């Protein structure tokens, strides 16, 4: 019996890295099922498992430790089955750009809300700072002030010019980190700046990606300096969808949730109810208008049944 971390899932077998650093190809027994999750794969990268070694040097996964979190993708829109992409994330770095392309605060806030629902801490990485005009830089400072104040660490970088990369590397130490963000914000450029020696590997993955591999169950974590891992899985842009009641949406906006304790009604949705402490905080600039607008935007979409499609 040995313990280890699942670092690669090909769909039919797994690579488990043991505590003494060996990488072992593992299979799971046909009857191995997890309680409570209807998933197409019972084990994902990031899972901590126990393995039983075979004489040939391969192994069977015999047990899986409880997960602190996981992210899923629904097998299809109608299906109740879901695919677990990764487990035990310590951090998600959301790469955004003020411009080229523009990342809206609504997108950022929706992402942050779903990350809160999945209990995954997020850091915001503002990339392409080399391109910004004075106005855009001023706007950037405003955003960084806003999100730092709410409790999300912010980084400003230029992945292309290798600026700010050391701070990112420092943050990755000892963590399992997922990178997300709109297409074109520079995720691959950033990952290559972090892992210059993995350049070939990411290239291999994108080739596989083009062949349609993102529709399979393939996923992999790459080791970074200081006992950390980054997940570079093709086609993963964010978290799965989640179901919640209207009055629960505000739980995932940290600062709105804080003020909501003082609303007159316990089930206040902070739209038009009398005695709403959240609306008062917006009027007094304790809560930013953009965050409140994003909150309302999620509620409106839910009414129109669009929310699921938004991811
Ligand atoms: N000026 C500038 N360009 C950058 C920077 N980072 C990335 N780019 C450019 O932006 C474009 C998109 O970068 P990618 O790294 O491919 O973006 P991505 O987020 O991986 O995009 P997808 O693979 O579509 O998800 C490329 O032309 C990069 O060279 C930066 O810091 N500054
Ligand atoms: Zn309220």
Tell me the strand percentage band. 15-25%
- Which H/E pattern describes the elements? EEEEEEEEHEHEHEHHEEHHHH
Helix content range of the residues, please? 25-40%
Identify the overall geometry.
Answer: globular
CATH topology of the largest domain: Rossmann fold
Sheet/helix structural class:
alpha/beta
The DSSP helix count reads: 9
Main CATH class of the largest domain: Alpha Beta
- Alpha-carbon Rg, integer: 21 Å
Biggest β-sheet: count, sense, barrel? Answer: 5 strands, mixed, barrel
Bound molecules: guanosine-5'-triphosphate, zinc ion
CATH superfamily of the largest domain: P-loop containing nucleotide triphosphate hydrolases
Unreliable residue stretches: 199-215
In CATH, the architecture of the largest domain is: 3-Layer(aba) Sandwich
Our count of domains comes out at: 3
How many runs of DSSP E, i.e. beta strands? 13
Distance between the termini: 41 Å
Spatial strand sequence of the major β-sheet: 1-2-3-5-4
Task: Describe the structure in your own words.
29% of the residues lie in helices and 23% in strands. With 311 residues, it is of the alpha/beta class. It has 3 domains: 2-68, Nucleic acid-binding proteins (OB fold (Dihydrolipoamide Acetyltransferase, E2P), Beta Barrel); 89-231, P-loop containing nucleotide triphosphate hydrolases (Rossmann fold); 246-310, Ribonucleotide Reductase Protein R1, domain 1 (Orthogonal Bundle), CATH 1.10.40.50. It has a 5-stranded mixed beta barrel. A two-stranded antiparallel sheet has the order 6-7. Strand 6 (70-74) and strand 7 form a beta hairpin. Mean pLDDT is 85; it is low at 199-215. Bound molecules: guanosine-5'-triphosphate and zinc ion (ZN). Residues 87-237 form the EngC GTPase domain.
């Amino acid at each position: 019996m040995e313990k280890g971390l699942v670092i690669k899932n090909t769909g039919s077998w797994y690579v488990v890295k043991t505590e003494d650093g060996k990488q072992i190809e593992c299979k799971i027994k046909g009857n191995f099922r997890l309680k409570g999750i209807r998933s197409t794969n019972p084990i994902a990268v990031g899972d901590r498992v126990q393995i039983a070694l075979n004489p040939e040097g391969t192994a069977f996964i015999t047990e899986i430790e409880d997960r602190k979190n996981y992210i899923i993708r629904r097998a299809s829109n109608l299906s109740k089955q879901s695919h677990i992409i990764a487990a035990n994330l310590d951090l998600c770095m959301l790469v955004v750009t003020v411009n080229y392309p523009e990342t809206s605060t609504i997108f950022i806030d929706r992402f942050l809300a779903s990350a809160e629902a999945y209990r995954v801490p997020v850091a915001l990485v503002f990339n392409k700072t080399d391109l910004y005009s004075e106005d855009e830089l001023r706007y950037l400072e405003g955003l960084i002030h806003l999100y730092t104040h709410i409790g999300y660490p912010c980084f400003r970088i230029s992945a292309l010019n290798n600026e700010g990369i050391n701070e990112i590397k420092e943050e990755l130490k000892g963590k399992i980190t997922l990178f997300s963000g709109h297409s074109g914000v520079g995720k691959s450029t950033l990952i290559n700046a972090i892992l210059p020696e993995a350049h070939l590997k990411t290239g291999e993955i994108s080739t596989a990606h083009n062949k349609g591999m993102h529709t399979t169950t393939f996923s992999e974590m790459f080791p970074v300096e200081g006992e950390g891992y980054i997940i570079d899985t093709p086609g993963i842009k964010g978290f799965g969808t989640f179901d919640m009641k209207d009055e629960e949406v505000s739980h995932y906006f940290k600062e709105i949730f804080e003020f909501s304790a003082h609303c007159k009604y316990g089930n206040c949705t902070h739209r038009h109810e009398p005695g709403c402490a959240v609306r008062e905080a917006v009027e007094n600039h304790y809560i930013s208008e953009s965050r409140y607008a994003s909150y309302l935007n999620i509620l409106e979409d839910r009414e129109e049944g669009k929310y699921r499609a938004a991811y």
